[in-house]
Design a protein that fits this description.
CATH architecture of the largest domain: 3-Layer(aba) Sandwich
Oligomer: single chain
Shape: rod-shaped
Number of strands: 12
Number of helices: 13
Length: 329
């Protein structure tokens, strides 16, 4: 590379033209320079390669053996450089054969996986989605290295070197079993705090403390009897006990239907949260990652426009319901 750094690349392009045309005048025309300038380039090339490269035989310039040896490799190398400078190739999901890794909690996976797979079966049969555990302390490194292309789900703090896109706003609701005593005292915040709680905390950090913080602001403290790292483990525990659990509303709708739980608004103000997808800035313009982001965002919008009955019945939206997306650059 040290030798290459001392070479004027325009000389190599000029040599490619000279060898292709076999004429200084024709090569100058092809290269967009004057004939004297091309003659000067040939002189410099002869010095560089310590070879005459082209000699006049009759009325035409003929390549030397050294030039014949150089020509195919030089032309291929210049084509490769030109391809690098031409820009990124497009990503055609219909013909792609690749694996895209998405990091998510079980909350995100409960929606991301069925949303994407219902669409991919028709639109991108060769694309495989691999949902990986979302380990917060490792996420930035995984996104930067490309081990994870996208993360989706619960709110993310500001992660260095990443970009995010809002998917939707989520509110929290509570769930209890049918016939739970708490249902006899709706709006009673003290009864709510005194009831044993199930806390779902997917991160070993401060996430999942919305209820505790809101109760503390009222001078109350709840009793957490069961703490879980997974949302999907909560409904069975709640269905068979006097626990109350507070979860994102879209999960609560599903749990209420599958486990015959009663869903209600907790008797205190809980902030809504922004559910986002996040990726590293290195991959903002990567065609496959851009396609994945756009597809997920589009499908989430369609999902929210669907009646609850259709969602619970598994009638997941597809981009195939509309015109197929064009290849992504």
């Amino acid at each position: 590379m040290k030798r290459l750094s001392s070479i004027d690349m325009n000389l190599l392009i000029a040599l490619d033209s000279l060898l292709a045309e076999g004429s200084v005048t024709a090569a100058a025309r092809r290269h967009g320079v004057t004939q004297p300038a091309m003659s000067h380039n040939l002189a410099r090339l002869r010095e560089l390669f310590d070879d005459r490269l082209l000699v006049r035989v009759g009325g035409r310039m003929k390549p030397t053996p050294r030039a014949l040896q150089l020509q195919p490799a030089l032309h291929a190398a210049l084509l490769q450089v030109d391809g690098v400078l031409a820009g990124r190739p497009s990503f055609d999901a219909a013909t792609a054969d690749t694996v895209l890794n998405v990091a998510s909690t079980d909350y995100g996976a409960a929606f991301v996986a069925p949303l994407l797979i219902a669409d991919l079966e028709r639109q991108a049969p060769g694309v495989r989605i691999a949902v990986k555990p979302l380990i917060h302390r490792e996420l930035v490194g995984q996104l930067a290295s490309g081990d994870i292309q996208l993360a989706a789900g619960l709110p993310f703090d500001d992660l260095p070197g990443t970009e995010t896109q809002l998917l939707f706003e989520e509110r929290f609701v509570s769930l209890v079993r049918t016939g739970h005593p708490l249902l006899d005292t709706p709006g009673d915040v003290e009864a709510f705090a005194a009831t044993p709680h199930c806390l779902v905390s997917p991160f070993t950090r401060s996430h999942g403390s919305f209820v505790s913080d809101a109760l503390a602001a009222l001078g109350l403290q709840r009793r957490v009897q069961l703490e879980l790292p997974f949302f999907l483990a909560a409904p069975q525990a709640v269905a068979s006990s006097n626990l109350v659990v507070t979860v994102p509303s879209r999960l609560a709708e599903m749990f209420a239907a599958t486990h015959r739980l009663v869903m209600f608004d907790p008797p205190l103000h809980l902030p809504s949260v922004a559910i986002r997808q996040v990726w590293h800035e290195r991959y903002t313009d990567e065609p496959s990652v851009k396609w994945l982001r756009n597809t997920l965002a589009h499908l989430v919008q369609k999902l929210h426009a669907m009646p609850l009955e259709d969602r619970l019945a598994g009638h997941w939206p597809r981009t195939s319901d509309e015109a197929a997306p064009s290849p992504t650059r």
